[in-house]
Amino acid sequence: MKKYLLSFVKGILAGLAIGLGGFLYILMTFLFHDDLAELGKILGSIVFSVGLFIVCTFSLHLYTGKIGLIYEEKQTKEFYICLPIMLIGNAIGAFGLGYICFFIFRNTDVYNYALSAASSRLVFNTVFDYLTTMIKAFLCGLCVYLAVKSFNSDRLRPIGITLLVFFVFVFVYCGFQHCIANMFYFGMTNAINWYTLINLLLVILFNSLGPVTGVLFTKLIKKVTAK
Description:
Layout: H1 2-31, H2 37-47, H3 49-57, H4 63-66, H5 69-72, H6 77-105, H7 109-119, H8 127-153, H9 158-173, H10 179-188, H11 194-209, H12 211-226
Helix pairs in contact: 1-2, 1-3, 1-6, 1-7, 1-10, 2-9, 3-9, 6-10, 7-10, 8-9, 8-11, 8-12, 10-11
């Protein structure tokens, strides 16, 4: 029971960390707008990595950072029980920070940039929109897996941190969808509706499938480098 409680608490902290990354992204897009909008997007995509860096450094329990382990090797029964527990913790942390930011910034221009980020994730007018969300979520799952794997393989060394920032930059800049980050954006804009639920269900599912490709890729690299 203690193990599950610890996973829950670390899940909340991980949700807060990713929410912080999301807020820093919004802040950069706000500070650098109009003619500097592209610079703001680039800087925002880079500073978002602060959230995942905190998660990896303090070994917090981020669902999208842990789900890939089930594809690497067989896990214990306790691990599978912990997965939904940490996901619930992630949701509490991300939504919680999101709503705190909502009440602080709802009457400011910062809110409008958060609204733009949230609204872009809630477009479901055609079948293509659903397919796009699935693909973006899958690719995000892949990037997060590679980011965490890189950091853990070269822990606290320049190359490990650099690769973590790179993979985070890729998924944020390209608009790939991360379920926990989305929770923060939806919380910060008070966007709770059926479209929110649809988005989160799809993104959680395909974030969970993305690491499959990452596992196959890393195993291929190991085989090639071992020769």
